[in-house]
Design goal:
It contains seven helices and four strands; from the N terminus they run ββααααβααβα. With 180 residues, it is of the alpha+beta class.
Length: 180
């Protein structure tokens, strides 16, 4: 049988988007169970456990705790495979974007991938620091890591310096064909 799906239409910054559920409800539930099973992986030897690097508030991802309207977005984001085009999640507060992002980071990490988790406020703080070493360390680690997860960039205090550093990181990652 063919599943026609449920669709939502919306506009962000003048661009029209359509998203929809591509699976029937029983298949969607089965996919949720599969993703839940994958989320219980173990860490690679010699590296810190996920719990040591992930903020406590974002551990223990559960698809059923996401708002129903966010679950199809989670499926798409969690299916992401490495390519120079990264994943950007934009939406209302409390929609689960940070939880989805941390779950994608966790999956990459437990499969042995190298990641950097940081927030817009941490980035801005380090880049705005009077200590050159702290600033350089943040910029270098954001550029060099294969998988950068930068949460809440809209909360960065965009001074000229922070903005310049942010775009420098994005440009260097783009040039190196890293997800940006």
């Amino acid at each position: 049988t063919e599943f026609l799906g449920a669709f939502a239409h919306f506009t962000i910054a003048g661009k029209f988007f359509t998203i929809g559920q591509s699976l029937c409800d029983p298949c969607q539930s089965a996919k949720e169970e599969e993703l839940e099973t994958q989320s219980r992986g173990s860490h690679a030897a010699g590296r810190p456990a996920w719990e040591e690097i992930c903020p406590e508030a974002y551990r223990g991802f559960k698809m059923e705790k996401l708002p129903v309207d966010s679950r199809h977005v989670a499926f798409k984001a969690l299916e992401w495979q490495w390519n120079p085009k990264g994943v950007g999640l934009i939406g209302d507060s409390r929609a689960g974007k940070t939880f989805i992002m941390h779950e994608l980071a966790r999956r990459i990490y437990v499969e042995g991938g190298k990641i950097k988790l940081t927030s817009g406020t941490e980035f801005a703080y380090a880049c705005g620091s009077s200590e050159a070493g702290e600033r350089r360390s943040m910029i270098d680690s954001c550029i060099s890591t294969p998988h950068l997860f930068l949460d809440d960039i809209d909360k960065m205090k965009m001074t000229d310096r922070v903005e310049s550093d942010f775009y420098h990181v994005i440009e260097q990652r783009r040039r190196a064909l890293k997800p940006a």
